[in-house]
């Protein structure tokens, strides 16, 4: 049997693409396709079951499609990936193994040690080599500079090197609060087939109909976004609405992160819609920026910054993960309760609840960055290692001392009152810093600045906020209230 095949093509669960990676040049007649469902991946951590359902079902559907295309496929369950690949070699002989470059440092090291041969990971628009060439020339790693360079390099929404519409960035137009009495389009639901139901049974989990688990379903979601959401995407992308969990966000990140969609086809669909007319540049540019700007930038920075980056803790934040992160009933803060409840239900919220509610709370409470990173990795359906490490360590909790972002994204109740609809029915008052009903975000925001005043006073983007501490006449009372709030959060009474 070993003579039948010339090599093993290993397909990780985030490389589910026949036109990219190692499968791009594969031959059904001579290549054995192997996928490994490892216990380490499924049972090694308290993963959100919606996340596990999506990853496992998508991989099993992909394996079935590979067989339908004429490949011989081994979908193996094993203790680890290496155990699975060892079993494949035991069955088919000591064949060489090829794989696209893995998406994390850990997997890269494990597979390299096992002797796996790598081809370039082309599931992104910017190779790791090209990104390193760009980053190596920068004094500061400004995403906007990278984004504009990629627009020109890829020829996206540019004419003769200049941006369509005359501006590179329409971010200022896209910060509107959630509108009143706005009618949101219904969500696209994905029906469950036999493979889905098999995975549900194994996990003891009834999945939502939010997430597709096939390439066809992912394409349907892309078409639905373009048709029903793209035009209005921009204005409210930074809002948090009480009556709508996704707003006009695309819900495409899980599919791109596992390979079911490629960034190029997603961007092409948006640009083609703009060319047809009826889609404002403010929305189209904002969506394109999320993909060829932020997504590509974050992946590039993950590899450029190195493996040790994930362990940084520049603000010496050592508080244990708050109980409310694992149970939405453990807090009276309505914004936090509702966001964590959404995570519990679907393993997803959009970028502003992640940054300005969950991460903001971790930041201003001094929660340990690595514990918060682990929680984000475990809970979110699109939480690949390369995504979460720079986003959490660099952007969310400023644990890198400003390598990625020049200022911490800390905010008090005033921001949340402006951009969410949570404060009206909440026990806490966003306008108050002290007192039993003072908003914990407001109290802890000022306490955070107070605790790190010496550090942030040297930051030109933070000096004005730190100077604001001098105007507080109730600073002693605030410090005392902050201690009470932190104790209450630890004990799940606030």
UniProtKB/TrEMBL annotation:
SUPFAM superfamilies: Cryptochrome/photolyase FAD-binding domain
Segments crossing the lipid bilayer: none
InterPro entries, per the entry: Crypto/Photolyase_FAD-like_sf, PhrB-like, Rossmann-like_a/b/a_fold, UV-DNA_repair_photolyase
Pfam families cross-referenced by the UniProt entry: DPRP
Gene3D superfamilies listed in its UniProt record: 1.25.40.80, Deoxyribodipyrimidine photolyase-related, DNA Cyclobutane Dipyrimidine Photolyase, subunit A, domain 3, HUPs
Coiled coil: none
The protein, known as: Unannotated protein
Organism: freshwater metagenome
